Amino acid sequence: MKRHLISAADLSRDDAVLILDTAEELARLADRPIKKLPTLRGRTVVNLFFEDSTRTRISFEAAAKRLSADVINFSAKGSSVSKGESLKDTALTLEAMGADAVVIRHHASGAPHRLATSGWIKGAVVNAGDGTHEHPTQALLDAFTVRRHLRPEASGVGQDLAGRRITIVGDILHSRVARSNVHLLSTLGAEVTLVAPPTLVPFGVESWPCEVSYDLDTVVGKTDAVMMLRVQRERMNAAFFPTEREYARRYGLDGDRMSRMPEHAIVMHPGPMNRGMEITAEVADSDRCTAVEQVANGVSIRMAVLYLLLGGNESAVAAARTEESK
C-alpha cells in the first residue's frame, strides 16, 4: 500500500483485497469479550474534522482505540480554525504533537491531498471525505459488505467482486461516496451502473469506468446490490428536480421495486437516510437493507486501513498474538 489513502483510485486490486481480507480478520474481534488489540500501542491518531460527522468520526475513533492507539479528536468548531487559523498552521500544530496518522474530513475537495503532499505532516493521511471529491473508506466498507453477502464462502477472503453488478442511485453529482465506489468497485471487477436524473449526473461521467442510466426500473431487475444515495440539499444551489414527490416516484426505492430485484440482491445506503424520498421505510427496515451492517463493517475496515498504513505487513491478529506472548 501507499503511504496515504487519499483516493480509491490509488488502490490496486491487490491493495483493495488486502484491506478487505485484513478487515475480515479484524471483524472477528467483535465476537471477543475484549475487543482490543495492542498492535498500535504508542501510536497517535488524530481525527481532524472540518465538517460535521457522526458515523465516520466515531467509526475512526472506535477503530483506532480497538487497536490501542491514542486518539485526539479535533473539531473545527470551537477551535482556532473558527478564529481563522489556516490548514497549514493546524497541520504544523498536529505534527508538533507527534501525530502518526491524521484522518481528515474537509469541505474543500483536495484538502487531504494538499495535507499529504505539503510536507507539513510526516505521518499517514487518510481522507475521510473531501467536498464532493472522494470518501475511500466508505467505498471500502461498501465493498466489504457486498463481498460478505455475495461471496459468502469463507466471507470471500482473497476474492474480488468480478462479474457482480452494482447499481448506484441518486445524487451522483454531489456524492463523494459514488465517486469512490465507482473507482473501487470497478477495480475489484464489478460492473457498476449509475442511475440518476440527468441534472444530477456529473459532467465528464463518460470517462468513469461505469454505465449510466436514467431509468431505475430497467436496471433494478438485474442487479446484485442497489446503493441508494442521499439527496444532498446542503450542496444544492438550484432546483435539480421538480419536486420531492416526483424524485421519489422515479428514483426512490420502494417495496414494489425491491420485489423486482433478484432474490439474493441487497439494498445499501451510506446514511443518513431521507426516508420517504430516496428510500421508503418499508425498504429501509427490511432484512435486505444493510445500512446498519455497513456501520459495523466501517469499524473493521478503518481498523484495517490504520493498521496497514502504520506499518502492518503481516496478519494483524497474528502480530497481536506475537506481541502478547512477549
Automatic annotation (TrEMBL):
Pathway: Pyrimidine metabolism; UMP biosynthesis via de novo pathway; (S)-dihydroorotate from bicarbonate: step 2/3
The organism's place on the tree of life at top rank: Bacteria
PROSITE patterns: CARBAMOYLTRANSFERASE (PS00097)
Keyword annotations: Pyrimidine biosynthesis, Transferase
UniProt GO MF annotations: amino acid binding; aspartate carbamoyltransferase activity
Binding-site positions, L-aspartate: 83, 176, 230
GO cellular component: cytosol
Gene3D superfamilies in alphabetical order: Aspartate/ornithine carbamoyltransferase
Coiled coil stretches, renumbered: none
Domain (Aspartate/ornithine carbamoyltransferase Asp/Orn-binding) ranges: 163-309
Keyword Transferase in record: yes
EC number: 2.1.3.2
Reactions performed catalytically: carbamoyl phosphate + L-aspartate = N-carbamoyl-L-aspartate + phosphate + H(+)
Binding site residues for carbamoyl phosphate: 55-56, 105, 135, 138, 271-272
The keyword Chaperone is annotated on this UniProt entry: no
Oligomeric form and interacting partners: Heterododecamer (2C3:3R2) of six catalytic PyrB chains organized as two trimers (C3), and six regulatory PyrI chains organized as three dimers (R2).
NCBIfam families (alphabetical): asp_carb_tr, PRK00856.1
Protein function: Catalyzes the condensation of carbamoyl phosphate and aspartate to form carbamoyl aspartate and inorganic phosphate, the committed step in the de novo pyrimidine nucleotide biosynthesis pathway.
UniProt family annotation: Belongs to the aspartate/ornithine carbamoyltransferase superfamily. ATCase family.
Protein name: Aspartate carbamoyltransferase
